[in-house]
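Ticket #4471: structure output looks truncated?

Reporter: J.K.
Steps to reproduce: submitted the chain below (68 residues) through the standard prediction queue, then opened the result file.
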Amino acid sequence: MERITPVDIENTRLRRSFFGYRRGATDTLIQGATKALDLALQESETLRRELAEAKRELDGFRAQEHTL
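Returned output as attached by the reporter:
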């Protein structure tokens, strides 16, 4: 699955159809989606770092346990 970035969403330009669309509402939706995706990506990265740190800490505890 290809990752979509906030910049990808921000740079998306929707084509108008016969009946068109409400530009203001669509632009607002795109801005909201961009912010939500950016926050989700930041949170995901933070959680990845925390998980890596917890794994290192657990490995340290396991090493101590084996020496006992």
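Triage note (M.O.): checked the attachment and the full token line is present. The mean pLDDT is 88.
Status: closed, working as intended.
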